[in-house]
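Please check the following for our workbook:

***
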Amino acid sequence: MLGYFTLLPVRFKTSDVLSHPKVMGAMLFWLPLAGLVSAGGSVLVYLLLGKLGWLAAVIAALVYPMLYGFLHTEAVADVADALYAVHSGKDAYSVIKDPTVGAMGVLWTVAVVLLKTVLIVYLLMHGMWALFVAAAVSSRMGLEMLFFTQTFRSSFIQTLQQGFDGRLFWSSMALFLLVGLAVAGENFFLIVALAMGISYLVATRIGKALGFLNGDVLGTTLEATETLLMLTGALLWL
């Protein structure tokens, strides 16, 4: 999970069978940990550079997506281009798989990165680190819910789903609910509920517009969910 969903250096033996369904299922089981590690690393950078004030917050906010390699952010560009392609009568799937990025994809990606960075800076400078970390963890719990309940037009995601049974899904939910409670207290229940609702609404709305769900839709859903969770949390608790 860390090797795929973060930039942390993870080495494997040549004999390791990474495509085995059990390995794939375990990778999804630990998916929320990627949010905990990435957001926790960002908070640590902010604390280490704290005397720099707002500059420390900006650097820390940018470190967060860097730690997950902008993996989900890149998906925003593809989905934006595909959504606009639908309006032009083009095939959304061929557009979303095109390695080039159109103007609308660039503009939407810049807007999302800017808004998310500003929100993280705002939360860090107001001492709301727990909300930031909780949003990172719960948004990935929302993705787990989608992996468990939805059908995707992606052979890779279908392979992931084969090993992610109900036992792993509910065990992961229970484990990271406990982690979230330790981080954000009882408010984490509300944050998780919002994450599940937002994730489902965003993914299904995009899926209905495109005619399919795939990895890019999941990445866009994560970015939207995190942004909306941080914005809602700031409105509720500041």
In short: Residues 187-210 form the longest helix (24 residues). The two ends are 34 Å apart (CA to CA). The mean pLDDT is 93. The CA atoms of residues 82 and 92 lie 5 Å apart.
